[in-house]
Amino acid sequence: xxxxxxxxxxxxxxxxxxxxxxxxxxxxxxxxxxxxxxxxxxxxxxxxxxxxxxxxxxxxxxxxxxxxxxxxxxxxxxxxxxxxx
Length: 85
What we know:
Blueprint: E1 14-19, E2 28-33, H1 40-54, E3 61-65
Parallel strand pairs: 2-3
Antiparallel strand pairs: 1-2
């Protein structure tokens, strides 16, 4: 049995770093998420929404999980797993 959380020690964060060439174009975006695992289908869904919302060209976004074991699962296929409260 795992310990049950009694509160939030540190909130989850997303950090973003944008690289541009000298002309201000050709952006490359690195998005780091406090997450242990991101399923490929979730990454593809997030990438599409972010690229559309931010007008990014395909291939210009990198999503990277930090591999923290202190965060909940963000994988939809694990949604049916019990939550300990």
